[in-house]
Each structure stands twice: as structure tokens, then as C-alpha cells.
Amino acid sequence: MRHPHPPQPPSPERSAELRRRFAEEARSERPDLATLCLLVGAEGDGTLDEAGLDAAQVELDRLAGQLPFRPGTPRAWAVALRDLLGGRYGFHGAGADYQRLESSLLHEVLRRRRGLPILLSVVWIEVARRAGAPVYGVALPGHFVVGFGAEPGPGGGSLEERVLVDPFDGGRLLSGQDAEVLVAGATGAKLRPSMLEPAAPLDVVARVLNNVRAWAARRPEQSAVGLWAVELALLLPAHSARLRYERARLLVQRGDFLAGAGELEAYAEVVGAVDDDAAEVVRREARAARAMLN
């Protein structure tokens, strides 16, 4: 099966500006989920200019304006979103969407009305939020969904107090058993109350970038995509130190041996504080990268 070519990246100057704005938004008091996801999209697709960014926000506003005025209960909100987005506009996902980078770019998901569970959930969340719904993301293992109702406190609370929907399945309302089946299918584990806690915007964006990195990792010829996804993830206020190692290896993979070796050595210093043997493995990688220069 031939896969479509992913979109081309922006110019270095445009990329630098997008990253500045991404870092600023991520560090703001109340990071805006739609803005962050659209900036990810602009980093992945050089055709998404300022007018395109504005148009995507306007489309979210337009969709929100077509919802009934404050339908009432969490279930009524969930049904209204399902009928509008899943029914009237046909937003949903399919297995083939996992093969496309566009399925992780919000502006493309709005255009195609197709995407990964987490990006379709972003559409549901942002449209519902604009209309005044009590809505939040739920990062179930392996399958992101959306919750309507009062946000559960620590520990999750009971499913009966709120409604979960699956935007990937057109906004299907989920019973407690449905949620258990989703988790069991993804991980083989049981649904725990902590899995139902609301996902913070920055956690959602980190997971979107994880998906982009995973997509690129399966396609060595797309290492440039993996690199920008890692570099955006490094701009988030909280991130794993191991992302530095991933970035270093991508630099080496792309032929930037000197920069990659320097990054590997810096990471080895961090690791060496807790695990000497692991640090030595990384140092050997750095020496091998430097040897490629000779």
C-alpha cells in the first residue's frame, strides 16, 4: 500500500517563530490547547500560514455556534456533540488514519474530518468548550476519549457521575464496560479510577507529539519529522531528559555527527549521576559518532 507523502516543513525562519510562540504559549498561565495543537500543525506543514491558523480557530468557533444553547445534562451535551460532529459533519477515525501524519495535525483533521483519537478529541473538547460545556480530555491508555460533566477529583470518582464519548467512533457514548474494554484492548489491564482523571492541555500536547515521534520512528526516511517533534516536546515545561538522547540519535542519523556526539556526551553526564554503566554506553555512541567525521 502506498502511503501519501507527509506535508513539507516550513522555512527555518518560520519554524523559529513558531517555536518561540509554542514555548511562550506552553509556559503561559493557562495554555490554550487549540493554539498549541495548531502550532504543532504549522511546524509539520509549511503551507499553514497565519491566515490558515486563524481559519482553523474560526472553524472551531463556527462549529460551536451550531450547538443547541446549553442543552443541560452531561448526557445532553454528549448527544449534541455526537449529533453535530459525528453525525452531521462526519468526524471519525479509521485504521488507515494511523498511517498518515496529517491525522496528528489539527488543521488537517478539521479539513478532512478524520484523525487519530486524540486529535478528534481535541476537536470535541474545543468545540464543546467554546459552547460552554463541562468538558475535558481523558487519556485512557492507548485510546484518548472525552468526558462531559463535573471533572472528577483525584482518584477518578464513579463513571455514573459523568459521560464518556469516543470521538474516533463518531462520538459514541461509552458505558463503564465500554471504557473497560477499550483499556483492556490497549493494555490488557483493568480500568483504574486514576485513568479517568482529566488530561491537562500540556499533557495532551505531549501525547500528540509522542504520536508524531512514533509515526516518524517507524519511517527512518522521515527523521526530519521525528526531529521537529522531539524539539517541540523539549520546549514543554516538563519533559523527560531522555528526549535529549532521542534528539542526539536523530542528529547522528541525519548525518550531523558533531552536534549529535556533543548532545550524546551531554546526556551521558546527566545519566552518569545515577547510572555509570548506562552513561558509558552513551559515551561509546558519542565516540562512534565522532569517528564518522574522519
UniProtKB/TrEMBL annotation:
<protein>
    <submittedName>
        <fullName>Transglutaminase-like domain-containing protein</fullName>
    </submittedName>
</protein>
<feature type="compositionally biased region" description="Pro residues">
    <location>
        <begin position="1"/>
        <end position="12"/>
    </location>
</feature>
<dbReference type="InterPro" id="IPR032698">
    <property type="entry name" value="SirB1_N"/>
</dbReference>
<dbReference type="Pfam" id="PF13369">
    <property type="entry name" value="Transglut_core2"/>
</dbReference>
<feature type="domain" description="Protein SirB1 N-terminal">
    <location>
        <begin position="58"/>
        <end position="210"/>
    </location>
</feature>
<dbReference type="Pfam" id="PF13371">
    <property type="entry name" value="TPR_9"/>
</dbReference>
<comment type="similarity">
    <text>Belongs to the UPF0162 family.</text>
</comment>
<feature type="compositionally biased region" description="Basic and acidic residues">
    <location>
        <begin position="14"/>
        <end position="27"/>
    </location>
</feature>
<feature type="region of interest" description="Disordered">
    <location>
        <begin position="1"/>
        <end position="27"/>
    </location>
</feature>
